[in-house]
Give the backbone structure.
Amino acid sequence: MRVRTRFAPSPTGNVHIGNMRAAIYNWLYARHMGGEFVLRVEDTDIERSTPEAIRTLLDAMDWLGLDVDGEPLYQTTRQKAHLEAAEMLLEKGLAYKEDKGGKGQGECVIFRMPGTDSSFVDGIKGRMTKKAENMQDFVIVRSNGTPVFHLANVLDDIEQGITHVIRGDDHVENTFRHIALYEALGAEIPNFSHLPMIVNKQGKPYSKRDGDAFVGDFREKGFLGDALFNYLTLLGWSPGDDREIMTREEIIESFSLERCQSSAAQVDMKKLTWMNGEYMLKLPLDDFNALAFHALEDAGLEADPAYAKQIFKLVRERVKTVTDIVPMVGYFLTEEFEYDEKAVRKKLQKDGVVDTLTQVKEIFENLDVFDEASTDKALHEFVESSGLGFGAVMAPTRIAVSGVQSGPDLFPLLGILGRERVVARMNRTIEQFLN
RNA sequence: GACCCCUUCGUCUAGUGGCCUAGGACUCCAGGUUUUCAUCCUGGCAACACGGGUUCGAGUCCCGUAGGGGUCGCCA
């Protein structure tokens, strides 16, 4: 039997991070087993299921590298089939009509639970059982004539030939209902696996109010799709050895449901950030540049491409996320950069710094050639002849030209900035803070 | 409240009765390299929820307690 898994989100404009993790595990299982991974768009909420919302969903999947087999099934196209099935259940006496609660809402269709104990083997949690007395009949068609989730979901899974349902923990109770439905419908029961929830820093389930609840939030914060994919994969699963940073192929190869955790996992932004940094490092140069240009554009900054590329090369190894780029390159692109107050106070406003900066500036003005090598050589000589320490010379120089006390190597930084900017900035710094 | 499930360092995890004086990773701290900043390297802090069994031997099996989560909709 060929394995078929699915991702069945409702396109509401944003994909919840927990749902996306479920999608990842479904994708991984299908790819590992050499099976298929299909998409079903549960678009029955007409209000929110706009074309843009569907676009967002597809973008998010693409960004994480989750490719889908075949055409997606849109649930709205299935309503007739759902209703026919309900009718059939009614005829067979497996469901009945009732004005539930007697509220005068009209009659809805209610599925009759078989009245026997139920049990299934969860791919992650193991055997799950539920006594007959703890299961109640449930509505499958509303009194307004629309099918309820349970019916639609099961019918569509049958339609799409789903062999393995991998979903969130919050569905375990539903599974007992769904199994009864499969049996009533005469369909083969798929394997069920329930993933533990992921929780936020407070140890609570992610809610929309937490921020970082949606896939888009992570993208906006400058994380890479591949990094988030790798991280999410490790949140509730491990290959069994000490590997953490793995290629997609390695993950697919070693993935298994049995190795999934059955307790909730907490998202650790620090570790995600670290992992993202590792991925940034491995990014091909062209990809990095493209990302950086985009970030610049979004920030409304313009730059000569050749000049910008030199800067990117310099900051490349130091950024952990895409959003780190702009603050790090900002001072290369504008004379309006801000000075870090603490840096000014601690390193600039000290005795002798005016003299030092003035001398350094003069050395720079008199160099035949102004580039990385020449500034390097000149400053080394100056440090030696002046008897000042390196820190006493380089730190103020850095702050004078960049406003901050940390950043890329100083000499390439100076070289790229060029003499004109460097000297002008040093003059300005001396005037502004040291007179 | 009822039903179901879960419980190893702060966090993600390894561990399937002896290899565990519990391993890795992130974070944090301390040294070192870099005569700037960052990186990097080395080291360190830090956990089997608790109580009973079973066993020659338990993080690993069983029972109980506590704590946590999920579900109890004509939502999905």
About this structure: The first strand of chain A starts at residue 4 and ends at 7. The mean pLDDT of chain A is 91.
